[in-house]
Design a protein that fits this description.
The complex is a heterodimer of chains A (about 350) and B (about 40).
Chain A: H1 2-6, H2 12-39, H3 45-67, H4 73-95, E1 107-110, E2 115-118, H5 119-137, H6 145-163, H7 168-184, H8 189-212, H9 222-234, H10 241-253, H11 277-310, H12 314-338
Antiparallel strand pairs in A: 1-2
Chain B: H1 2-15, H2 31-39
Classes of the chains: A mainly alpha (about 350), B mainly alpha (about 40).
Amino acid sequence: MTRFLQNIKGDKTVWAIIAVLAIFSFLPVYSASTNLVYVAGKGTTIGYLLKHAILLLLGFVIVFATHKIPYRYFSGLSVLMIPVVILLLIFTLTQGTVISGANASRWIQIPFVGIGFQTSTLASVVLMMYVARYMARNKEKQIVFKESLMYLWLPVGLVLVFILPANFSTTAITFSMIILLVFLGGYPMKNILIILGVGILALALFILTVKAFPDTLKNSRINTWSSRVENFISGNAEDNYQAEKAKIAIASGEIYGKGPGKSVQKNFLPQSSSDFIYAIIGEEFGFIGAISIILLYLLLLFRIVIIATKTETIFGTLLVLGVGFPIIFQALINMAVAVGLFPVTGQPLPLLSTGEHLYG
Amino acid sequence: MTCFAIGIVLSVSASNGVKEVNNNSKELENPLDILHEAIG
């Protein structure tokens, strides 16, 4: 055991945060699984608990294996991975499956393992690595916009175009994070504004195309997310079923919560163990539990910034910020959805939600 | 992929403060370098 612990390197606080979140995740996940067992009539609670434990173990193996790789490898690896993720995304769009009743062709099944895998999240991490590499290599140079269009924005645009039809929120988060990363990397502000304009224009064009020719992209989720935004703006309780149940769950938790396993809304709230796990935490552990989770993510953000500032290379700094910020951003969006500050996105809560979300 | 991202953050943090043989100070410029290094 001591020998094994000696092999664990890196920031101890980050290890502690992921350990605390992973152990804590058993409580709301086990509790919310009763919804699937007794309401949907699928599986057993022990079965879901075991599945969660196996996925956590798998997640730990991925973290452990990745942290043993010297980070300089990720620079070249990103270049090799870009064509791979583009092929995977095309495959997902054409062959993707539906997971847990969710109407989303975002997943592919890993052969023999029987676990779903969300390709867009892999693509997102690879893009961050690639952008960090490009910005680090051009840090000392005067960036030529035309050159960056070819070597930076073309691969970024290609990957995002293939994520967009099935997963708007991941596209939006990834694009925002890339803009933030190139800004931090010293990309000229004027060019950032041009890219932002092009991005918004391309999105508008895409929406109009799909609305005009609905049969061209059958797997597109445009109608889903446009109705989510419309429902959020209209505030109609019937149309916002999930959001309303989540708000009831959080409000009924009050200061100290109802206690572990005592959530009532888990029986009515779809995706209560994944996308809406934060609402169940709010109901069972109250304001104190909900705030503690936010503080843990903020502590993780703080450690990410500290690691970034201590890193000796520009690539290392941008890499940490590029892959670290989206975790916090995604967590904040998930929690904002649960408390009704943001339209429903389908983004899980990183390190806490159950299922394949743990690593996908 | 959260686990992959966390692993990368920990990989960078593991290299911080390692002064003696800090190979991380030089990123691999060419993607093929990875294959060369892997082969030996």
